[in-house]
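Quick one, tokens below. Sequence please?
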């Protein structure tokens, strides 16, 4: 599927403006969101400018707020490109930054009218589902290719945001919509291969027990993050994880062994209370980045996205950016250490949630109020995992909250296909409830967030519970 013409046309002025600033030798300021999609997006734009001989400065931000806008106004660059956020802050950006060219490359809910001094590229303006059919990294790839056709070798990077944002919503966890266009370009460029199989990270490259333990989506209670338990599990079901002294990877298993592994894992997950849709999530389309060295975590598209997410959420986004820019030395070693810490943190938080029975069920929502116990940068990942385990009912979203040291609370909301089909849009709910509490919120129908003052958490949760009952057609 080719991108619709009206969508492609919306890139033209951005292409001209970026080329003009490159020619004039101006530093292009890129401000991006701190997750896998944000880092892949900023990486693609930075690399594009670098290849065209231009100058750039890339900054990663947790949120767009007055602190960021005031700093940018003071720096007063000639051009700012916002990637993977911005559409929710049109008026604020226009008012705070009236003196420069502004480009927004986003796929989030658009809030308010677009002021004239902003160029905005957002698939939602063209009837394209920005939550499922293309991520910000895909938008950045299309722009990059329009700046210089030779950048088509970056197509696989355009899919990283889609994997990080869980846009693999087609049959067998495949891409849909414009992500298929990117996939086809990446395959044509010999950057990407795909096949349907067990979905654990490092299909060809990691020992089986580690591949299962390292995978965070789907998160299997008792096995994810627990190599020792994975070894015991494989022994128990009778799958050899060593061939003589060589550890076997998933690609070394024959069809019968794979079937045995799938059915044993399914039975185990059901025994842990997971529902059938989360069990099916262990099979899907495996995306292999063909030009990456087989022994690295960049070989598997989902693992690459997860690594960037870890760098972002652990406040080490520059490591992720270096990797997208092409560093294959120091950055990989550092990133692997960050991923280790990130996994440990996630494991500790999940144990805390379960041991203390922290998830409360209200009439219309689940609530996890983690106070200061969970890092505000990781609460979104915890909410995604809890939601994806298939243990909570799929009829209610989970609203999670983590306090920050500055007196605010970070909210992360995650929904299910079932409730989205019933009419819920979590981005709109977060926006409405946050505004009523003096905060700000937004995002996608299925995954959204907000920032509010700590004193308002209870009020916020009460309002969300009320709005959900009104919005839903259940
Ligand atoms: O800002 P952004 O769009 O990039 O973030 C979306 C977030 O929501 C990601 O962390 C992604 O993993 C999460 N998500 C989710 N479940 C979905 C869709 C997205 O947890 N079904
Ligand atoms: O941070 P988290 O992963 O929970 O964010 C979920 C989604 O909500 C992301 O797409 C993020 O960009 C969006 N969000 C937003 N406004 C906020 C907080 C989060 O649009 N204030």
């Amino acid at each position: 599927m080719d991108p619709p013409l009206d969508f492609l046309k919306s890139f033209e002025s951005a292409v001209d403006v970026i080329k003009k600033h490159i020619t004039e030798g101006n530093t292009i300021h890129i401000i991006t969101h701190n997750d896998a999609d944000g880092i892949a997006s900023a990486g693609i734009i930075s690399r594009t400018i670098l290849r065209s001989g231009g100058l750039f400065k890339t900054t990663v931000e947790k949120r767009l707020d007055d602190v960021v806008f005031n700093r940018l106004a003071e720096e007063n660059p000639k051009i700012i490109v916002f990637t993977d956020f911005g559409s929710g802050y049109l008026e604020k950006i226009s008012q705070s930054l009236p003196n420069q060219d502004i480009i927004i490359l986003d796929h989030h809910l658009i809030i308010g009218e677009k002021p004239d001094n902003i160029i905005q590229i957002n698939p939602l303006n063209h009837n394209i589902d920005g939550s499922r059919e293309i991520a910000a990294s895909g938008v950045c790839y299309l722009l990059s290719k329009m700046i210089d056709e030779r950048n088509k070798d970056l197509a696989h990077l355009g899919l990283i945001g889609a994997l990080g944002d869980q846009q693999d919503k087609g049959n067998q966890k495949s891409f849909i919509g414009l992500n298929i266009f990117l996939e086809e370009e990446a395959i044509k460029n010999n950057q990407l291969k795909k096949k349907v199989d067990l979905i654990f990270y490092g299909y060809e490259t990691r020992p089986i027990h580690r591949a299962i333990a390292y995978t965070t989506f789907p998160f299997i209670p008792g096995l994810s993050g627990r190599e020792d338990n994975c070894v015991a599990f494989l022994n128990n079901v009778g799958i050899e994880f060593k061939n003589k002294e060589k550890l076997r990877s998933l690609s070394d298993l024959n069809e019968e062994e794979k079937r045995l592994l799938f059915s044993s894992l399914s039975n185990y997950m059901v025994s842990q209370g997971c529902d059938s849709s989360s069990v099916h999530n262990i099979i899907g389309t495996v995306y292999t980045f063909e030009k990456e060295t087989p022994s690295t975590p960049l070989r598997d598209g989902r693992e690459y996205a997860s690594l960037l997410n870890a760098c972002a959420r652990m406040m080490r986004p520059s490591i992720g950016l270096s990797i997208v820019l092409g560093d294959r030395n120091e950055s990989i070693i550092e990133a692997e250490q960050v991923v280790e810490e990130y996994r440990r943190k996630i494991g500790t938080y999940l144990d805390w949630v379960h041991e203390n029975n922290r998830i409360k069920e209200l009439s219309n929502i689940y609530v996890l109020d983690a106070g200061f116990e969970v890092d505000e940068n990781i609460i979104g990942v915890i909410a995604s995992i809890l939601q994806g385990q298939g243990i909570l009912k799929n009829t209610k979203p989970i609203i999670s909250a983590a306090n920050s040291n500055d007196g605010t609370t970070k909210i992360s909301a995650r929904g299910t296909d079932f409730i989205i089909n019933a009419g819920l849009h979590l981005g709109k709910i977060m926006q409405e409830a946050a505004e009523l509490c003096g905060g700000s919120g937004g995002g996608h129908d299925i995954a959204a967030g907000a920032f509010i003052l700590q004193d308002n958490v209870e009020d916020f949760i009460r309002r969300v519970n009320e709005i959900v009952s009104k919005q839903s057609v259940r």
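The first strand starts at residue 27 and ends at 33. The longest helix spans residues 330-355.
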